Amino acid sequence: MTIRFSQSFKGFRSRALVALLLFACADLSFRAYADSGRFDRFEAANHRWTWWQTKVYRELPYTPDVVMFGSSLLTRIVNEGESTYLNRTVNVTKHNRSRHLEDAIQANTGVPIKTYAFNLPGMHASDAAVLVNALLRDKTPSTIIYTIAPRDFLDNLLDAPYATEPFELMSHISDVGELAPNARITKEEKFSFFLQDFYDRLTALGNCKTELATIFQRKWRETSLPVLEAHVPTVEHPLTPGVVGIRTSAFDYPDHLNLPPEDVNKIEHINNFQCYQFCYQPFRPKIYNAQLYYLDYILKFAHERGVNVILVNMPLRKDNLNAMMPNFWEMYKADIKKHAAQYNAQFVDLFDTNEFADKDFCDTVHLTGRGSIKLVDKMANAVSTSVASQTLAHSAGRSSQVAGRSQAH
């Protein structure tokens, strides 16, 4: 019995050593391939909303004067609001700006500006922070407008700040530094993160496992879905996003998604009160305070670079306040104002239940296209002077730097 066990152990050890050797060879080969510059982690990632908006921003031939951040509340402005304002169909995959705000600020001040909007459904302050950290260092605007609402800071649908598509993508294509460990809420998450981070730094395959899995799934879809669709003509989309059931499943959004101007007779009204009640209650102080830390990071980042920050408190339908715990709305606004004041940021409160009627909303938080037009008009009136003066000062500073470099040469 002892001899048989000893032989089994030796066989297991031999197979383990062979497996380890094969993994080491594969890892070294992939590391050499990655170091050659032929493996692009960004191109290999999921081509979803975050990817498209990041790609378009990186490829801009200019630096926008104003970069906007916000959740689906901002999406309503740059999608339904824009198509309705422009009275034409817009490609929402690549239309990441507010022409309406640009026109309104120029009409108010005479100063032309260009905007860019990172409008990601479900965006939290932590998501905005990693985008700011990754993308605004080299292409720094003169003003950041961050459209905020309570769910950006208190969301019970969020397990932890790192567990989102934007945070994951930015963690893979940039150095997020202190933002990563602070995205782990519990001691267990922090310990697991440091172990995973050590493994990722040690092995190239571990470091790029998400992108490699995405490539495999993308190739599988490219080869398998046409065959399935050919043999199952009654099924229009055999695999929809989420069928795979994992967060990193490969699902690439098309580069063209057209949205026509809003038809008032076809606005879909949804009752999402219970959803937001679940988001707000019970109050989770660790999540809330973590998101305030990320807000601080954004404000500090901008302050150190002379970037003007305007925090725009978005309108909500009155019944959405009833989904919150007592006194949370007042605490939230007081906290935002306190953090804004610490870094000389501007706080613009556009929440006004008298100004925005129920007809301006399609649910308890999202504005209709025409409601979005009303909002942008109010926003422009509140921020035009600040944005215009900062744009002119920023432009003058760039001109001085160019002149200085010319004289030096």
Order of helices and strands: HHHEHEHEHEHHHHEHHEHHEH
| Helix-and-strand structural type | alpha/beta
Overall geometry: globular
Low-confidence stretches: 235-250
Distance between the ends: 84 Å
Q: Classify the beta-strand content into a percent band.
A: 5-15%
In order across it, which strands form the biggest sheet?
3-1-4-6-7
**Averaging pLDDT over every residue, what do you get?**
89
SS field, number of helical segments: 15
Largest sheet: 5 strands, parallel
How many distinct beta strands? 7
Summarize this structure as a short list of keywords or feature phrases:
409 residues, alpha/beta, 5-stranded parallel sheet, two-stranded antiparallel sheet, 7% strand
Describe it for me?
The structure is a single chain. The chain is of the alpha/beta class. It is built from 15 helices and 7 strands. The strands form 2 sheets. A 5-stranded parallel sheet has the order 3-1-4-6-7, sandwiched between helices. Strands 2-5 form a two-stranded antiparallel sheet. The longest helix has 40 residues. The radius of gyration is 24 Å and the shape is globular. About 4% of the residues have low confidence.
Question: In a nutshell, what does this entry contain?
Answer:
The chain is an alpha/beta fold and 409 residues long.
